[in-house]
Amino acid sequence: MSLPVNIDDFRRATRRRLPRIVFDFLEGGALDEITLRSNITDLAALRLRQSVMSDVSGIDLSTTVLGQTLRTPVLISPMGLLSLFHRDADVALARAARAAGTVFVHSAWSGAPLQKVAAAAPGAVWCQAAIWPDQRLVDQHLDRAEEADVPVLVLAGDVAVSSKRERDLRNGFTMQARPALRGVLNAATKPRWVANFLFGPKITFGDQSIDGRAMNIREMGEFMETENDAVTWDDVIRIRKRWRGKLAIKGVMTAQDARRAVDVGVDAIFVSNHGGRQFDAQPSTVSALPEIVQAVDGQAEVLVDGGIRRGSDIVKVRALGATAGLIGRPAVYGLVHSGEAGVTAVLDILRDETATALAFTGNITLNALSTSALSTSALAPGTNDAYPRARHTLQTP
Q1: pTM for the complete prediction?
Q2: Which of the two residues, 383 and 231, has the higher pLDDT score?
Q3: Active-site residue among 106, 274, 337, 392?
Q4: I need a labelling partner for 161 at 20 to 30 A (CA). Which of 80, 108, 280, 300 fits?
Q5: What distance in Å separates the CA atoms of residue 117 and residue 100, rounded to the nearest whole number?
Q6: Domains of the chain
């Protein structure tokens, strides 16, 4: 089998290796998956302006994100239930991030304890926190982050209510592990995954326990159903007062929310629509990015994820004012392919492609980028619908 040369190669390999029910859980989005597709197509539709006869020797992709100097502007977003895809899960992602000189954000719904992941990749792990109904659980999670010397806390702002993912419903994918018959039969054709699932580490809730025992997948599902739909900005203010490190809020998609976040002392605005997995009737992250950057006006850093599949995508979001871009599914593709080595390969591909795209714009540093690098007139905030749409369509399983 030839070595993957781009992210889509890794995606195809992942599709071959995972049971359909698990691959659909990874790939799927909410409802009609319009937002999921728009994340990719809207980014692909943006064009970069080529600049010739520019000295582009000495390309430098290093950047500073929330006080931390990174060798690449590509970070890894928080993702839960990674144990479904590989036995090393979060630890492999964190180690690959550290080797690449970047950061992995540990999920509040991880199957691996934060302390274990942070110890495996010192200095390369941030912590996501959810605002659960029981305030004591939130405080305990923050205590763990402090004990692990985590420098950045990422608040999950887009999980107050549950989403409806129709691929999972059709497949019978639930936290109670009751798949439809066709899902069981398909899984039987993936013996390597089945062996890992049956004989590898049990899937548990890494940082939540019952009587000192980590929750199993069924108990984790019951816990995750207790959404905090009463969460308000007062909860963010309380955490801001308590947390001594840097604070980011994930799920911001409007200028109004971005300004409110700045007002309450957040250090970074994380533009994210949860990879299209939560709310399907909203724009892509790249189309929301310009108005948020303008609203923040340099008072906080801006991070963005959703649809990044090429290094040129990183150059585009930097040109639009983001400090860094984050990947989710592409990192899992690498994980499924070959564990830590696969994630490292994915990050290497994106780093090389970013350097090439940056050079073609006539720049050697990320800080030199501006909207002048983008060949489009649809950059003004409030004109998201004017973004040209890509003619190709996203592959579907």
Answers
A1: 0.89
A2: 231
A3: 274
A4: 300
A5: 16
A6: 7-47+58-358 (3.20.20.70)
